[in-house]
Amino acid sequence: MEEKKEKLSMKDLILLFFSTISARCWARLGLTEDEYGDFYQDLGEARLGIDTLDAIFNKIKDLVDEQTCREMEGVIATLKLNYFHQYQKSKKKETENV
């Protein structure tokens, strides 16, 4: 007998995508390894991911419960703060090397 696979709703799929992109953002900030075991910083990719998460959040925030909404806001805020910190560090390194 075949096991029935649970179908993901569009909202569930978007939340899964949000989680995947946020994990990649941490990696591209140079703060964790990515899913391939690579460890490097690419602030352009990190910014693209953070901006994408922000856009996704603005589309889905009225469709998720309050706790999920707060968690998503927290993830985005923390990523933005860490992006700013890593950006400042990279600019400081550039000026030191000139």
Strand percentage: under 5%
Number of discrete helical segments:
3
- The helix/strand class is mainly alpha
- Mean pLDDT across the residues is 94
Query: What summary fits the major beta sheet?
Result: none
**Uncertain runs:** none
Order of helices and strands: HHH
Q: End-to-end distance, in Å?
A: 68 Å
Question: Percent range for helical residues?
Answer: 55-70%
Quaternary organization = single chain
Let me know the number of strands: 0
What radius of gyration results from the CA coordinates? 17 Å
Shape: elongated
Protein traits:
3 helices, about 100 residues, mainly alpha, elongated
Short description:
With 98 residues, the chain is mostly helical.
Description:
With 98 residues, the chain is mainly α. 69% of the residues lie in helices and 0% in strands. The protein is built from three helices and no strands. It has helices at residues 10-28, 43-60, 66-96. Helix 1 (10-28) runs parallel beside helix 3 (66-96). The relative contact order is 0.14. The mean pLDDT is 94.
